[in-house]
Amino acid sequence: MGAKLRLFEDYDGTVYEVELPLTSRVDARAAADELGLPSYVDLSNLPMARAVVAVWAALRAPQLEALPEALRRRPIVALLFGGAAVKLLSPTANKPGHPLNRRLNDVDFAVRKRDGALFVKLLASLGGALGSKYAFFVTSGDRWFNALRGGRRYRVHGISGVEGDGLSVSVIDVFCDELPFRHTIKLGEAFEEARENLFTVGAERLLLSKLQYIFGLPRSRLPELEAAGQGFRVLPYEHLKGMVAVGMELKDMKDVAALLIDRKPGEGIDPGALRRILGKDQRFALTVRLNLENFARRIDVLVEEGLSRSEAEVAAGRALELLELLPRVEKRWSKPWWNVYVESPGLEGVK
Question: Would you say the C-alpha torsion 294, 299, 305, 310 has a positive or negative sign?
Fold first, then answer.
């Protein structure tokens, strides 16, 4: 019997522990191969291995006798988005030492609403069924959060990495049917296209999930933005009354760069799919265009992070190519046109 490591103590006194060394009764690479995932995906990355095995276990649930019978009712299609999805769709994001190979701090899933509660229960059972390497747990706070979301969103906790002699823990989000961010991204047929999209939401929706980010900052606080080293995020938009529009953060710029380096419009990114989504929503289209324009003109930020000039220029060129193919927006809004009532990161030290 190995030593017990305390992962988390709940406010009600419940302690969540994991046995060390971490155990595994499933081969993550074999699971990835069964899902049809490419060999470039780095499964030595603990959050990535956990994500792949969770997706595999959800799909194979009826055949996994180690799971409680109640969780084996039907296969569940679970999709990844965020940084884990970028790693599935981009070889560059997996290259050792590459500036676009960023550390995963958490993993996010999307499932159909009908599968949400069942998927959370399945995640909470994986540690016992497949080994402590795949342990997830639901805290008291998570249960309150989940109960208040009406089956639209869930939250669990899980291991996110190794830190010194211990393990770090992070929050895992599970969204149902849509990604309700600054602009809402409907997932729809993404679940039917899971295998061809490598069990992600797809390159197009993944790009949109990065390019949807925006918030308004009073112009009087621009010096704070600059002092925080975040001036590159100011979007090229002059019509907001008393405010500037601030776009995606550096980690999302890196993810967009990785996708655009490995995929181009018409080959790996379907402009028609983007047009179908954005053509119905001028507000969303404007935010996407502003973030793409800013990305293309601020590639020096990525070069300063270590990206080669040639790779940065490829990414910028493909961003400009996408801009030519996406709907143009003539409407100008003087007030925020995005959803301001969402749980979304702002800017550390600048709110």
Answer: positive
Query: Which position has the higher pLDDT, 163 or 216?
Result: 216
The β-bridge relationship of strands 166-176 and 153-163 is antiparallel
Rounded CA-CA distance 4/166 in Å is: 11
DSSP string across 93-130: GGSTT-TT-PPP---EEEE-GGGHHHHHHHHHHHHHHH
Distance CA 92, CA 102 (A): 10
Strand order in the sheet with 166-176: 79-81, 108-111, 166-176, 153-163, 136-137
Distances (CA, A) of 31 to 27, 39, 93, 130: 6, 12, 20, 12
Q: Count the Cβ atoms, other than its own, within 10 Å of residue 248.
A: 23
Segment 13-22 shows an average pLDDT of: 86
Cβ count within 10 A of residue 12: 8
Model pTM score:
0.95
pLDDT per position as a tens digit, 236-282: 999 999 999 999 999 999 999 999 999 999 999 999 999 999 999 99
